[in-house]
Amino acid sequence: MKLQKKLYLLFEEPEKSRTSFFLNTFIYILIILSILNLMFYSVDSIREEYGYLLELVRNIIMPLFILEYIGRIFASGYLKKYRGFQGKINYLITPYALIDLLSILPYIFLCSGFNSSFIRSLRLLRIFRLFRVKKYAIFVAIMKKIFFRIKEELSVLLFYTLIIIILLSFIIFDIEHEAQPEVFTNIFQTLWWAVATLTTVGYGDIYPITAIGKFITAIISIIGIGFVAIPGGMFASEFMNIIAEEKEKSCTIKKEQNKICPNCNTSKIKTFSNPTLHYSNKQKNFSKVHLCSKCGFAWMKK
To answer: Are residues 121 and 155 in the same domain?
Structure first.
């Protein structure tokens, strides 16, 4: 248990010790080096001249990732919910554990002799290790909160966008098929044009040549600007709201921490929100109860 606790603190709580901080920093550096190694390996000239060096770096880094993965599985037993066989299964299906597994599986397959092109392409899964950088976990949490808050609005917008794309595909196909049978060959091919036009991307690989087709394309391109801007505006608005809420919560916590007991002047105060009060408080207009941990004195706040 002591070893599990030490490993858990080393891997999962870098803010509590310098050793843990340096270990996690070292792991982040290895992640970056691993990604750079994969990028350089994709350059033919570099691979031909320095391929042996890139493979050496890979053969040093990947075993360290495997050891880290095994260490994290063992250390997870420090938490009660990850103890025993079922607990280990629960840990293995957590997002971070799956990320670790995805990053080392291609290397394990290659070392086992499975050297197919598909297995080699799985090396790209190593980039998922970037999600291990917990420094940006707050941003990920904010994005999840934004999606949760505006999921209904996004669903409605996506539904109407899909209807417009399908409707446009049928209309433009009927208009352009006779003029360009080799370009607008079927509805599915026209769907690509509709998506590129509505999102204002306009790759130029497929476009109408008839007057009516050009007119519809111009109108849809203008409408598409609004469709692209709406989700962006929704995200920006919710992002600012969440940031404001976090700042307000932080200020509230600081204010609560600065409270002083009027009886013994200590700052060790516990606050209970939305208390259930009786006595003569019929309107229940008290929102908080403060309790001094030292002398036990309590007072209420409206």
So the answer is: no
